[in-house]
Amino acid sequence: MLWKGVSLPISNEQLKGIFKKYDKNGDGKISKQELKLAFKEMSLRFSGWRAGRAFRHSDINEDGYINEEEMSELVTYASRWGIIY
Question: What is the pLDDT of residue 84?
């Protein structure tokens, strides 16, 4: 289980919504630290390593953030871990 009331597997849209909740400053982007926290709270094994890999894969414009356009890349990458149906 990811969080209370959320069971696996989840949909792409649900995962996007979960990631967006970690945008703590409300700028519409997810920083590497915010992504690490999200993965840690998902209780993923090797969460820091996975967050780093997912971030490098998804930050297409290499600005140090995952924006709305790059979110699909992040969700696609995370789907490899079997948390999405």
Answer: 54
The model's pLDDT over 10-63, given as tens digits with 9 standing for 90+, comes to 788 888 888 889 998 889 999 999 999 988 888 778 889 999 999 999 999 999
CA distances from 81 to 1, 16, 38, 51, 69 (A): 14, 15, 15, 12, 21
Gap between the Cα atoms of 35 and 51, Å rounded? 6
Q: What is the DSSP letter of 29?
A: -
Calpha distance 75→55 (Å, rounded): 11
**Structure tokens that stand for 54 in this block:** 């997912």
Written as one letter, the residue type at 58 is S
